[in-house]
Amino acid sequence: MTTNRLFLYASFLALVAALACPGASATGTLAEARGGRRQLLIAHRGASAHAPENTLPSFRLAVQMGADFVEYDLQVTKDKQLVCLHDETLERTTNVEEIFPQRYSAGGQGADSTRHWYVYDFTLEEIKRLDAGSWFGDKYKGTRVPTFQEILDEVRGRAGHLIELKAPDMYNARGIDVERMVLAALKRNGLDRPHADPKTPVIIQSFSAGSVQKLALQLKTKLPLHLLVGAKDKDVWLTREGLEKVKSFSTGISPDKSTLTANPQIVTWAHDLGLLVTPYTFRVTPAADVKEVRAEMSRYLSTLGVDGVITDNPDQMPRR
Fold it and tell me: How far apart are the first and last CA of the chain?
């Protein structure tokens, strides 16, 4: 990692740390405060267009592609271990149906019946028996679901961590304090404070406003926090009044990119409050090829002035 890259990380952390106290006021816009810092490349579930999402190979590839942060999701096992999976269930990205065919939970009746293999019904040892790579391609056969600790060890000193808490309200309802678990793990690794390791910045985010509020106001973490905002919640949080409420417990927003397309002024409002803006998800699809995605990211970065992009295709980040 170059000295310049480390300086960029340090500048970023100094900024978010200064804004980490809920209710802190911004001096000028965030764009001015950046002072020339380049905008962030955030690899969504790693380089998930090129390797199985939320796995160590995906994170390694994202780092090779120049990601400033790897973004990933955490779930909790039956024996209360943090593992990296997007879904609350195992069937989409592992071979759990083959290894544990009878361990499903059934819901509904008749034609509406469903079968799901929930993460919280399996121990870490059982989940480690699953293949989390073959669904993506034979090259990744035998890839395992990583633990939170394995990701911290793999990425530390090479990129930052944008940690998403998945379904924290559901885990809290089951008596599992996932927010406290994550902070405790970060503390064991010396990563529970802004700028604790300039080579390894940490941001925590969630779609649950209650979870982000708990982290900020109850657990009083000083780490940067982002509220993820889907299109359905835009009228709650992505107004002037809504963003002022966000500012009381968060240092940034990660909105669905479509909400910014519909109302670019959201970026200005957020920056005026000192909030970072990192929209999701930029990806190559049948409807949007490589050139279109690169142009789209460039427009958000250059014209809208967002602070970074969350993308499945970190190799397509425009030159910064």
Answer: 17
- Give the chain's domain count: 1
Hey, what amino acid is at 180? R
Catalytic member of 50, 86, 161, 226: 86
Q: What is the domain range of residue 248? A: 3-89+124-316
User: What DSSP string runs through 42-81?
Assistant: EEETTTTTTS-TTSHHHHHHHHHTT-SEEEEEEEE-TTS-
Residue 265 in domain:
yes
CB contact at 8 A, 89 and 116: yes
User: What stretches in the chain show pLDDT beneath 70?
Assistant: 1-37, 108-112, 320
Q: Is 44 a catalytic residue?
A: yes
Q: How far is CA 107 from CA 102, 172, 271, in A?
A: 14, 22, 44
Catalytic pick from 44, 50, 226, 271?
44
Predicted pLDDT of residue 109: 65
pLDDT digits (tens, 9 = 90+) for 76-101: 999 999 999 999 999 999 999 999 99
Residues near 217 by beta carbon (within 8 Å), at least 6 away in sequence: 22, 249
Please tell me the predicted confidence (pLDDT) of residue 27.
31
Annotated active-site residue 226? The verdict is no
Which residues, 6 or more positions from 96, have their beta carbon under 8 angstroms from its beta carbon? 90, 103, 117, 122, 130
Count the neighbouring beta carbons within 10 Å of the beta carbon of residue 11: 16
